[in-house]
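Subject: Re: docking follow-up (nicotinamide-adenine-dinucleotide)

Dear J.,

Thanks for your patience while I sorted out the input files. As discussed at Tuesday's group meeting, I've set up the holo structure prediction with nicotinamide-adenine-dinucleotide included as the bound ligand rather than trying to dock it afterwards. The sequence and the ligand SMILES I used are pasted below, so you can double-check that they match what you have on your end before we go further.
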Amino acid sequence: MKHSGRSEPVSLPGARAEAAAGSWHEAYRGEPVLITGGLGFLGSSLAHRLVDLGARVTLVDSLIPAYGGNLWNIRGIEDHVRVNIADVRDPHSMAWLVRDQRYLFNLAGQVSHIDSMRDPETDLDINCRAQLAILEACRRHNPTLRIVFASTRQIYGKPDYLPVDERHPLRPVDVNGINKLAGEEFHLLYAQVHGLRATALRLTNTIGPRMRVKDARQTFVGVWIRRLVEGKPFEVWGGEQLRDFTYVDDAVEALLLAASRDAAIGKVFNLGGPPPVTLKKLAELLVRLNGGGEFAVKKFPADRKKIDIGDYYADDRLIARTLGWRPRTDLRAALTRTLAYYRKELRHYV
Ligand SMILES: NC(=O)c1ccc[n+]([C@@H]2O[C@H](COP(=O)([O-])OP(=O)(O)OC[C@H]3O[C@@H](n4cnc5c(N)ncnc54)[C@H](O)[C@@H]3O)[C@@H](O)[C@H]2O)c1
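The structure tokens for the complex came back this morning:
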């Protein structure tokens, strides 16, 4: 299946692909890097990579139980990172933490769409108000810091056209989308007005080892995988919606690449993945790769249907053209690696 507007995944061997994207690895050696949400799925995966690259990594995370933070995510690098259990809503902690950093990967967030509708104030505080406070801390205490913000495809809402490029209207369908949009806009505003060196990446569904599988707060794929590994049937709601999926290592690569390039400052880029699939096809592939399993296609629950965006997949050619980023991992490899991880590690995630 080939869709215009998407960069094709490339299966270049690591070194050649890196050369294609330009060498940026040295940018991190010996450098102080702060990751908010650093014990979560993306933050901890980024931390593993940064430790490999020789960076001096500090993680800040509140470890609120309902969210994706998990100390098991940093197993293997726990002696090579500083962990600061703090809340990004605390401006005093953030003012202290951003000092003397070279890079900030700003990934802390309340990620559940449905929670944002049930408890909109908390989502507002974390995804909007705290983001402004973090940027104020940077402006006052470290204005040359390089910042990358994890934004989301959720801010587009229900697409008018596919694939969705960065010029698509922004019409979030839930409170989380509105607050993430505000968070993104604050980053771009501070870049434009105060000269902060910030970039925003609009992530699509990202999957891989260390994602939350306890419940569907982060992604429905997490629960599917959990139930498959436990030998239980899972539910597919609707089934015909098209989605694209970025493998976590590719998302990490995009974050690192974006922070290392001046061409990305003040800009916003979509991330995509391999060609999109329907949720039903995704479920079938997962069952096949698992060597068995069952799922039932069900009607969307009413409260979720109201905030569902229908089909979505990203046009990620802007980041391909500007920074040379392309997703490298196909869906089969992404799911195979994720399943293998949870077959071994599930007990640490439930
Ligand atoms: N995973 C995806 O598919 C996806 C898609 C689009 C955007 N994003 C964005 O990427 C970022 C990271 O997402 P993730 O998938 O790793 O989710 P995650 O839930 O695993 O990570 C978020 C982390 O932020 C921490 N956190 C939440 N509130 C905090 C607070 N007040 N103070 C300090 N830490 C706090 C959580 O404990 C968690 O460890 C989020 O901002 C999310 O909106 C993720």
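A couple of observations from a first look. The radius of gyration is 19 Å. Residues 75 and 205 are 24 Å apart (CA to CA).

Let me know if you'd like me to rerun anything.

Best regards,
T.
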